[in-house]
């Protein structure tokens, strides 16, 4: 109490602003709102008055505050700015801590923070698997700040020509992790995994070393016979496969279909945005045959999934279509390839406009101007296309289907 009165008397003498009580030689006790007290070292540099906080009075004693103020004065005598010197020390400490964080630690944090937004639950596992296989053997425990071009190339060069598609994914994942590290101040400068303007000058383009491999597709002329074989099999997997082909949807879209997505009265299946590659709702018109399959499945309904797996609360496994193809001795094609079969049939056997077919496949419109002006989804025209496709899958000829030629 005596000390506060002494500081108050000195304050009056020096005509200081309210709440500032001098101890001498630049040290002040500052009393703020709610009677909060803290120590301040006040000095002038380049004509500018600066206040440097030395800590709250409840945890820093007067003796400690005077010692800290002495350190500030010594810095000033050496021609240094105490505030700037403290900032430099903090930055140095941060740099030391940043240099200690490894690429693997950054990658783990990146995956953890992003996996909630990845639609495919297997994506995080794929990320981890590729990093463990190709990246970590080279720079698993290397500080992320030390990752350079040579280390990145050491990962990519052995697989660039032989496993090009995998190498491209690995490069992209390294780039994303390093970008994340830079944004979080764990590294600085150029990203050594960047392709355009950097690695594209050091590695051959993907098209030069590996042609893009499309999903193997069944020629549409062989489709009716395949569908007959598929319909002869009485299983949930066979019905799911047939339904997937009839709707020209992706495998995961069909396998994940739930009953609350179906409006059987309207002949409509609405796939929610979170399950779509394009990230928006997709309406699928259902042909009579597709609706008949749903009627079969409703009679044995045991869960919220239309095509339940062995465990009632889960859908069929993503491998069931591949297994079905093996049983039917069609190992030269893929389930996804039937979308190409549909596309080829529509182009060569019908006069349905291209935009109707593309909309049926839920492809995004590459032309930005066209995309901006198109509001509808050509649903009724796609319904006619769906019936024509179902009829062809059922063995009817193009003439019997009576394909519409002037939609």
Please give a quick description of this structure.
This protein is an alpha+beta fold. The protein has helices spanning 2-14, 62-77, 82-100, 103-114, 123-139, 149-160, 164-183, 206-209, 223-231, 236-247, 251-255, 288-299, 320-327, 337-349, 354-360, 368-373, 379-393, 398-401, and strands at residues 20-24, 27-31, 37-45, 48-56, 262-263, 268-271, 282-285. It has a four-stranded antiparallel β-sheet. It has a three-stranded antiparallel β-sheet with strand order 5-6-7.
What does it look like?
With 407 residues, the protein is α+β, with helices and mostly antiparallel strands. It folds into three domains: 97 residues, 2-Layer Sandwich (Double Stranded RNA Binding Domain), CATH 3.30.160.390; 109 residues, Tyrosine recombinase, N-terminal domain (DNA polymerase, domain 1, Orthogonal Bundle); 182 residues, Intergrase catalytic core (hpI Integrase, Chain A), CATH 1.10.443.10. Strands 1-2-3-4 form a four-stranded antiparallel beta sheet. A three-stranded antiparallel beta sheet has the order 5-6-7. Helix 4 packs antiparallel against helix 5, helix 6 packs antiparallel against helix 7 and helix 15 packs across helix 17. It is elongated, with a radius of gyration of 34 Å. The N and C termini lie far apart (94 Å). The C terminus is likely disordered.
Query: Which CATH architecture of the largest domain would you pick?
Result: Orthogonal Bundle
The chain-level mean pLDDT equals 84
The parts where pLDDT drops under 50 for at least 5 residues are 368-374, 403-407
SSE series: HEEEEHHHHHHHHHHEEEHHHHHHH
Which overall shape is indicated by the principal axes computed on the Cα atoms?
A: elongated
Count, helices: 18
Identify the CATH homologous superfamily of the largest domain.
Intergrase catalytic core
What's the helical proportion of residues?
A: 40-55%
Order of strands in the sheet with most strands:
1-2-3-4
């Amino acid at each position: 109490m005596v000390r506060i009165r002494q500081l108050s008397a000195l304050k009056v003498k020096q005509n200081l602003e309210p709440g500032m009580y001098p101890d001498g030689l630049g040290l002040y006790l500052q009393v703020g709102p709610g009677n909060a007290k803290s120590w301040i070292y006040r000095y002038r540099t380049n004509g500018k008055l600066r206040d440097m906080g030395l800590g709250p009075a409840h945890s820093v004693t007067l003796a400690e505050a005077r010692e800290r103020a002495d350190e500030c004065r010594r810095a000033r005598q050496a021609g240094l700015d105490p505030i700037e010197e403290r900032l430099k020390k903090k930055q140095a400490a941060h740099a030391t801590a940043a240099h200690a964080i490894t690429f693997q630690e950054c990658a783990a944090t990146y995956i953890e923070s992003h996996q909630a937004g990845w639609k495919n639950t297997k994506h995080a596992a794929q990320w981890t698997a590729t990093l463990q296989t190709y990246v970590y053997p080279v720079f698993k425990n290397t500080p992320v700040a030390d990752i350079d071009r040579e280390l990145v190339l050491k990962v990519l060069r052995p697989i660039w020509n032989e496993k090009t598609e995998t190498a491209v994914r690995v490069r992209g994942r390294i780039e994303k992790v390093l970008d994340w590290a830079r944004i979080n101040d764990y590294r600085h400068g150029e990203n050594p995994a960047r392709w355009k303007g950097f690695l594209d000058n050091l590695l051959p383009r993907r098209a030069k070393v590996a042609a893009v491999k499309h999903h193997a597709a069944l020629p549409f002329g062989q489709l009716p016979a395949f569908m007959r074989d598929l319909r002869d099999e009485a299983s949930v997997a066979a019905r799911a496969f047939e339904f997937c082909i009839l709707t020209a949807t992706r495998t995961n879209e069909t396998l994940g279909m739930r009953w609350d997505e179906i409006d059987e009265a309207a002949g409509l299946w609405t796939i929610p945005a979170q399950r779509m590659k394009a990230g928006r709702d997709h309406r699928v018109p259902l042909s009579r045959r597709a609706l008949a399959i749903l009627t079969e499945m409703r009679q044995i309904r045991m869960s919220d999934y239309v095509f339940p797996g062995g465990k009632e609360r889960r859908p069929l496994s993503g491998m069931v279509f591949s297994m079905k193809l093996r049983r039917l001795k069609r190992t030269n094609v893929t389930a996804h390839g039937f979308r190409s079969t549909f596309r080829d049939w529509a182009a060569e056997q019908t006069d349905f406009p291209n935009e109707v077919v593309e909309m049926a496949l839920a492809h995004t419109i590459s032309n930005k101007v066209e995309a901006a002006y198109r509001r509808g989804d050509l649903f009724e025209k796609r319904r006619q296309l769906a019936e024509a496709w179902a009829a062809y899958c059922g063995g009817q000829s193009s003439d019997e289907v009576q394909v519409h030629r002037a939609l």
